Fold this sequence. Notes:
The chain has 440 residues and is α+β, with helices and mostly antiparallel strands. The protein contains six helices and 24 strands. Strands 4-13-16-15-14-17 form a six-stranded antiparallel β-barrel. Strands 5-12-10-7 form a four-stranded antiparallel sheet, with no helix packed on it. Helix 1 (2-14) packs parallel to helix 3 (65-86) and helix 4 packs antiparallel against helix 5.
Amino acid sequence: MKLLLLVSASYVLNNNDDTGSVCDRNVAGFNPVVYFFLFILRYICRIFQFGRIYTFQNPPMRVSYKYSLILAGLALICSAGYVGMRGKPPGTSTVSEQAPQMVRTSIAEQKTVPITVFANGYVTAINTVDVRPQIQNVVRQVHVLEGQDVKANQLLFTLDDRSDTSGVDKARAQLAMDKANLNDAEMVLKRNQDLLAQKFVSQAVVDSATNKVNSLRSVVQADQAMVQSSSIALGFNQIKASISGRIGAISVHPGSLAQPSGVAMVTISQLDPIAVSFSLPEKELQSIRASYPNGDAPVTVQISAKQQLVGKLIFIDNTADTQSGTIRMKAQFDNAKRIMWPGTYVNVRLVSRTLTDAVIIPAQSIVTGPTNKFVYLVSADNTVKMQALEVAEIANGHAAVTGLTVGSRVVIEGMQNLRPGVLVKESQAKLPATGPEVAI
């Protein structure tokens, strides 16, 4: 019985919220209920020890063990009631009694947002020409250097033209001879016509002279065509630039045999203006065509961290790639300073459409749940609640959403342990980053 009473006293003292020894308390920590319980407990112990109740009468009154058990039960009931009145054990306080959780918040704003699409592109020359000879011949002279800028019709190579020069001279000589024969035939025809008028020759002689003149005229025309053909063949020995641009590596040298079907003698690429080829998802095509009916959408390329160029869209392919689901496009840029070079990769961005009066929040405030996406809204009483929403677009760290009103206060940092109804407090210090979206 004594052990039972001691356990009851220990339970009451351990469930007392005040710290320290009961006997060592100062006045501020005085607990009259505990002291009353200890007084009753000591009194019961005396009964079990001496078998009598101490009163102010003398001699003390004897009691039976039956009443002692009743007093012990009452003491246990009092201890249980005391613990119940003290409330829940430590660590089981309600949400309203917990300390506020530190978070950082942001206000939803309404803005007009341009939707930008990004792609990887490569620089390509608008015009590229592989220079090859039209006839097979030996290179006699090279007039340009590798990497040189050339103009259209500038002389690049000269081939061995001796044979073609002789052919031109031969054709011209043949033309001169046939012209002389034609002049002689015309004079004979004139004399025969005079004699026919005087009845000295027959009509047959005049007809024969006329046919000879017509034949020689055709021969002269053929000779003229031969001279022209020989001159063109002679011109093939002078290879000129067909476009203005920059030449690449030269593959031939004086004495090399140049062939029409062989390796190109040199390549000319037009560098100003220049083009950038890139591909965009096919779903962006309708937005681009609707936003820019003339097809001149502004396109920006990022050359370096501090340098970019702005051009315009000049080409949209007539077929989308069925395997990748993309469509090829080209943009043109001014390149007088040779900032872009054919074959290099660049980052391309294009404004495909514009969202008017969109609700904008930081992208990091969006939480990805099992079935939808939502944010934590901070109410006027500084408690949070979940708000489902739809994400229209995410760009540059911000998200355009629907299902949220302008001016709403959303949590952007510290949402890891948040639950609906939790009390929060704005933190001035930056909390650990949680990324653009938090998956739960």
